[in-house]
Amino acid sequence: MKILMYSVRDDEQAAINEWQKRHPKVQVDTNSVPLHLKTAKLVNGYDGLVVQQRGKIEKEVYPLLKAAGLKQITSRTAGFDVIDLQTAKKNGLVVTNVPAYSPRSVAELALAHTMRLIRKLELFDRRAARQDFRWAGLQAKEIHSLTIGIIGAGRIGGTTAQLFHALGAKVIAYDLKPRPELKNILTYTSKEELLKQADVVCLHVDLNPTSVNLMDETAFSLMKSTAYLVNECRGPVVDTSALITALKEQRLAGAALDTLTGEENFFNFNLENQPLPSEDLIELRKMENVILTPHVGFFTNIAVQNMVDISLDDVLTILAGKQSSHQVN
Predict the structure, then answer these.
(1) Is 232 an active-site residue?
(2) In what helix (H) or strand (E) does residue 197 lie, and over which residues does it extend?
(3) Residue among 122, 127, 263, 326 flagged as catalytic
(4) Which of 33, 57, 231, 289 has the fewest C-beta atoms under 10 angstroms from its C-beta?
(5) Of 234, 249, 272, 283, which is the active-site residue?
């Protein structure tokens, strides 16, 4: 059996090698390019396919995959919006993802971002860089005194809630599917009430048509002027222009963003001494109360290994004629 993995990074290779040791009869080959019309011919001769990319797969690619004899497409990420599920299904392709590679990985970054915001560490760092070591005006808040609002209390959001609860914070959540097992650590409420009450709003929702611009001008108008926004899910969930306006008008205390709309043009690229390709990114970088990280919530040793293991295991499951619990189409 031969499996081809697209867009493989150097840091993934060790995890792939470990999986390969446990499956010596399976040949896993890799490349560093995304799956697109120009690179689809690389699948010829392979039984299985694993992808991870930001750009959408063109509709013309799916018939080529079918003609090559493929039965599935596995995304080794939680998000799968780059894949046209209906077109894949029409071409007999089962689509799977990795919905829970490591909830702790993303949840711990949400906690770290929150701690930096409420302790105003970003502001202290900027002062120190100017050799200004005063603390005036930067009094912090203790986390147990805060109300943390979780929008999207699924695997990752629920884990985030557990971490904040363990530190003594009051946790409230908004989710269309409440989980009974979380009733002892959080209280479910409406989105509007959450935005009004929360000192920190943490976003952990999937990207879908109903979540695009979930945080818009109306949402920001409901938040406290002393509140913070933490986005660890997907960029389009936040109306970036509305966020920038709210920050400029001091209707929010700050934000920590691990993801941005259009990030495929700048995150994970070295753009030193180059013009930035996003006006929103330029504006956000000017703000002292904004923390930006390049979509690294997933980037831990355990998460990367799980993304590789689960995706490759799913390929074997589907090619064996079985159904994966991670099938999304």
Answers:
(1) no
(2) helix 191-197
(3) 263
(4) 33
(5) 234
Residue 234 annotated to the active site:
yes
Per-residue pLDDT 10s for the chain (329 aa) are: 999 999 999 999 999 999 999 999 999 999 999 999 999 999 999 999 999 998 899 999 999 999 999 999 999 998 899 999 999 999 999 999 998 889 999 999 999 999 999 999 999 999 999 999 999 999 999 999 999 999 999 999 999 999 999 999 999 999 999 999 999 999 999 999 999 999 999 999 999 999 999 999 999 999 999 999 999 999 999 999 999 999 999 999 999 999 999 999 999 999 999 999 999 999 999 999 999 999 999 999 999 999 999 999 999 999 999 999 999 99
Q: Distance between CA 98 and CA 86 in Å, rounded?
A: 19
CATH number of 2-101+301-319: 3.40.50.720
Q: Does residue 60 have an active-site annotation?
A: no
DSSP string covering 228-261: EEEE-S-GGGB-HHHHHHHHHTTSSSEEEES--T
CA-only gyration radius of the chain, Å: 21
Pairwise CA distance, residues 238 & 219, whole Å: 10
Distance (Å, whole) CA 33 – CA 39: 8
Tokens of 208: 């879908």
SS3 59: coil
For residues 190 and 150, give the distance between their C-alpha atoms in angstroms, rounded to a whole number: 11
Contact 77, 53 (CB under 8 A): no
Residue 110 sits at φ, ψ, to 5 deg, of -60, -40
| Fold agreement between 2-101+301-319 and 103-292 | yes
- Which residues touch 328 (CB under 8 Å, ≥6 apart)? 80, 85, 95, 96, 97
CA within 13 Å, CB half, 11: 11
| Domain regions of the chain by residue span | 2-101+301-319, 103-292
Question: Is the domain defined by 103-292 classed in CATH 3.40.50.720?
Answer: yes
